[in-house]
Amino acid sequence: MTAIVLFDGVCNFCNASVQFIIARDPKGYFQFAALQSDIGEELKKKHQIPEKLNSVLVIENNTVYNSSDAALFICKHLNGLWKVFYLFKIIPKTFRDILYKFVANNRYKWFGKKDSCTIPSPEIRNRFL
């Protein structure tokens, strides 16, 4: 079983986050697709995801997780102490998403953005859809 992480392919913070996940997911549970890619567009349509959603998404078994739910879902499946962050799930989503949206709304200002999606290296290309 695998889960798909849909991320903003032009966001420097999002690309660094994908590399972070890959380094802590040696079994390859997560696969990745940029929201701007053809497969990203197909998955958004298939799962009726709004075009202007400002969030990382995780799709597992036709269930879509967004915002802080997606981030915590990812932490739950990473190697090491990152699993501990899943305990934040006890905090109501409304409150968790306030912090998530603050970072999401400022990510370009703080970390910058690229003109186009990053091409994955040959070593990890099989993780990208």
UniProtKB/TrEMBL annotation:
| One Pfam family, short name | DCC1-like
Superkingdom of the source species: Bacteria
What the entry lists under InterPro entries is as follows: DCC1-like (IPR007263), DCC_oxidoreductase (IPR052927)
Protein name, per record: Thiol-disulfide oxidoreductase DCC family protein
Q: Which organism is it from?
A: Psychrobacillus mangrovi
